[in-house]
Fold this sequence. Notes:
The protein has about 130 residues and is mostly helical. The protein has helices at about 5-15, 20-30, 30-45, 65-75, 80-90, 90-120.
Amino acid sequence: MDYTRIAKLHSKVFSAPRDSPEREQAYSALSEADRAAVFDYDMGIRSGRIKAVNINEQEENGNMTYEQFKQKSDSGERGTLRELSKFAKESPELYQQYRERYHREQDEQTRLHNRRLTENTFKNKPFSVR
């Protein structure tokens, strides 16, 4: 069974709120076999028989997910730079997207950290000291 396709259908159906017309419409748009597969997938996830497939970032051809990219970029282990460069050679567009997203997140974290530092520095001090 192709769990990535079923997981996409499952997320499409179950992303709408419970008992909403959007969920009913998405569910009714599926074929009978897909409905059975989505129901079986949902019951399998709830019972623990099936591990949830991460379909948000993962490509179907086996590329690295963004979380894996982030983990490898943050780690200082040997060989991770080689793995990242191999990933960059195999899929340069996806690597570029991940790299830009990673740098944006790092810049945002730096901005938040600096903001917290300056807010705590000038808290409860007279204006003339600022």
